[in-house]
Amino acid sequence: MLRTAPRGLAVALAAACLLSHGPLGLGAATAAPATPPAGAAAVAPTAEGLVRALYQKYLETAPDTVVGFDFTDPVVAAAYFDPALSKLVVADAQSGEPRLNFDPFIEGQDFEIKAVAISAKGVTKTGATVIAQFDNFDEKKTVIFKMVRTSAGWRIADVQWDRNPQTLRALLSTNAR
User: Fold this and answer.
1) How far is the C-alpha of 167 from the C-alpha of 104, rounded, in Å?
2) Nearest to residue 144, comparing CAs of 128, 130, 163, 164?
3) For the residues of 6-73, what is the DSSP string, one character each?
């Protein structure tokens, strides 16, 4: 069973991952600071490619290790989410009582994923829907990504899960704590 890293450790691991593998962990080694380069979208030129790169982090994690991917870190959040959702994710993580208490990409806290099927539909110049389907501990999961093209490239504008009518944006935008 795998667990995500505690916030402090995860931030340190994410920074190390960014330094050694680039903003999307695809082997673009660099000694630059842990910030996505201006051309980060070139690593994932399609909406589907960005989601595929995201799930690669889960597929590359060895059994019984901690995932060093902290999507709540401001640098990492900006590399994956559109500016508005990035702001919501980071603010929620820094709050005393975060609403997001699970990993939105796997719809859970623990994972054992061996393969992910990714497909895109409704792709236009400015938006797309990308669907990720996988088994997590032998439970079928479907995660739907609403994607937008920003000046920085394709980013996630919202996430929806097949068994939950609430979206990530709605969860983080709720006023009640």
Assistant:
1) 10
2) 130
3) PHHHHHHHHHHHHHHHTTTTSS----S-SS--TTGGGGS-SHHHHHHHHHHHHHTPPTT--B---TTS
For residue 28, which phi and psi values (nearest 5 degrees)? -85, 75
CA-to-CA distance for 25 and 104, rounded, in angstroms? 19
Which residue type is seen at 92? D
Residue 138 is inside which H or E element, if any? none
Give the per-residue pLDDT at 147.
98
Cα radius of gyration (the chain): 15
| pLDDT tops 80 at residue 36 | no
**C-alpha to C-alpha distance for 101 and 118, rounded to whole angstroms:** 25
Instruction: Tokens for 146, please give them.
Output: 């609403």
Q: Which residues contact 12 (CB under 8 A, 6 or more apart)?
A: none
The candidate with the shortest Cα–Cα distance to 51, out of 151, 146, 163, 152, is: 146
Q: What is this structure's pTM?
A: 0.74
CA 32 to chain centre: 22
Task: Tell whether the model's pLDDT for residue 27 goes beyond 50.
Answer: no
